[in-house]
Design goal:
The protein is of the alpha/beta class. Helix content is 19%, strand content 41%. Bound molecules: S-adenosylmethionine (SAM).
């Protein structure tokens, strides 16, 4: 199985995008980072024209060109969507280059380019994402994704929402925030867990799936905590800048 097979066989991910695209695709629709072309194929039915952009020529040749061959209203463009000059304004912009907290893929630079070619009523699929954080204990010395059920994280706090990103507006890629959390269980914090939820359309919200935003474990400085303590996490990263841009510091509020 390749990466693209895994993406297209992730039933939960595909179903929620198919539902949103079936509801919303119309007029001039762009699919940015088309990969296998699967989302463009869903858009074909209700859109007048679909532009399917993909940066990687090998992916176009091996996957998108084959899948999209029979769709007369889809044009594949080998382009970098973060700098591409759209030939027509967009009625719909589909962009599934998501990653947990939008850190490690190009969703943010690509959307920041695409919104230059949006209209007042352009529909974005997905519409937005929001991120939550919890603190806890894990055996971990590097930033990594929590593969489903494979890594133990003992949470010492509740899960709180700390950020929301709406794709219909220009996004500042440089994220930094002091986040307050209340400790619910005594222990030694050494790790943060970030979870990203995706609002694909209207009230269609999906939690992580095997190939969409796996929760992210981030080691942080050790801090002994008791139930009822309030802590502040300083969290900093660049959206689209990669996992090595993540910086954290955790301290107790006295
Ligand atoms: C996570 S995959 C998703 C593929 C497809 N959208 C889907 O949902 O199955 C992201 C795709 O975007 C492509 N990509 C990454 N950066 C890009 C860029 N700047 N311009 C165009 N395509 C890009 C990658 O090569 C990859 O095929």
């Amino acid at each position: 199985m390749t990466y693209y097979d895994d993406l297209t066989k992730d039933e939960k991910r595909v179903t929620v995008f198919k539902e949103a695209i079936s509801r919303k695709a119309h007029g001039i629709t762009y699919d940015l980072g088309t990969g296998s072309g699967i989302l463009a194929s869903f858009a074909s039915k209700n859109a007048q024209k679909v532009y399917a952009l993909e940066i990687n020529p090998l992916v176009i040749k091996k996957y998108a060109a084959k899948l999209l061959e029979e769709y007369d209203n889809i044009e594949i463009l080998e382009e970098d969507a973060s700098s591409y000059e759209f030939k027509e304004k967009a009625d719909v912009i589909i962009c599934e280059m998501l990653d947990t907290a939008l850190i490690d893929e190009e969703q943010v630079p690509v959307i920041n380019n695409a919104i230059k070619y949006a209209k007042e009523d352009t529909v974005f699929i997905p519409e937005s994402t929001y991120d939550t954080i919890q603190v806890g204990e894990a055996k971990l010395s590097y930033v990594t994704y929590q593969e489903f059920g494979n890594r133990t994280f003992n949470s010492l706090s509740s899960e709180i929402k700390y950020n929301e990103v709406n794709f219909s507006r220009k996004i500042n890629p440089n994220f930094e925030k002091d986040i307050n959390l209340t400790i619910e269980k005594a222990g030694t914090i050494n790790c943060l867990l970030i979870t990203t939820y995706t609002c694909v359309a209207d009230n269609l919200i999906t939690e992580p799936t095997p190939m969409l935003n796996p929760p992210l474990l981030i080691p942080t400085n050790e801090l002994q905590v008791s139930k009822g303590d309030t802590i502040i996490i300083n969290l900093k990263y660049t959206m689209g800048g990669g996992l090595n841009t993540i910086r954290t510091n955790t301290k107790r509020v006295i």
